[in-house]
Amino acid sequence: MAIPPGDARLLFLTRFTRLFAYSALSVILVIYMTEQGLSDSQTGMLLTFTLIGDAAISLWLTTRADRFGRRRTLIVGSLLMAAAGLVFAFTKNPLALFIAGTIGVISPSGNEVGPYLSIEQATLSHLVADRVRTQTFAWYTLVGAIATALGSLSAGLILQSGVSSAVPIEKVRHVVLLYAAFGMLMTLLFARLTPISEVHRSDDVIRAAEGLSRICRGWRERAPFPAELDGANGTTLWNCHDARRTRPRRRQRRRPRQRAGQGRR
User: What whole-number percentage of the chain has pLDDT above 90?
Assistant: First the structure.
């Protein structure tokens, strides 16, 4: 099965990019924190606050995504991911690291965090046809697994490059910068999503219903099916016409039947 085109293909690409970055960062995160001068207890607390912050930010963003806009929510999550990577790369201040780890999107385990998974799956469910939806999600899961494996492998190869057995801090920082760069790349990819990925807003539905009501009231005789309309609009107009045609007619008054013998002289 080929990957669906359009927005669905973009969501496949963002999932691959995201899980590649997550898994690469998870390989070096503890090493990097130690090299930055954090103690074991501080590193443990930072990872704990990072997981708690990821859960809170994910819940807050995903529960407001349909109202705020799926595309905007995904862009905000990507910007938080890039910002956290930049802070981790260029500061040694423990307070700044705690704030970036809590508010930003960092995955210490290499698994999915942030608002992406819920929004992407909800979007994919109405972008693809019913007959290929299960296959699409199977490929979506497989793409994420492949990205996780390749990200971990790439981080290990970066750390092992060179003749020295020690791990220089510059090599580890390269992985962190790569994480921030992938966050910016995801921002650009999410910005290319079209309005078809958004949920239908209630005010649009209300305006469409009001327009259909005016059409139904304005029809006085049977009209041919408009050629410029198709899909859901055409079906709705036909239903409107069928409802007009099948509505009950007014009952006409019937004159009382004369009984036998009445009216005769």
Answer: 35
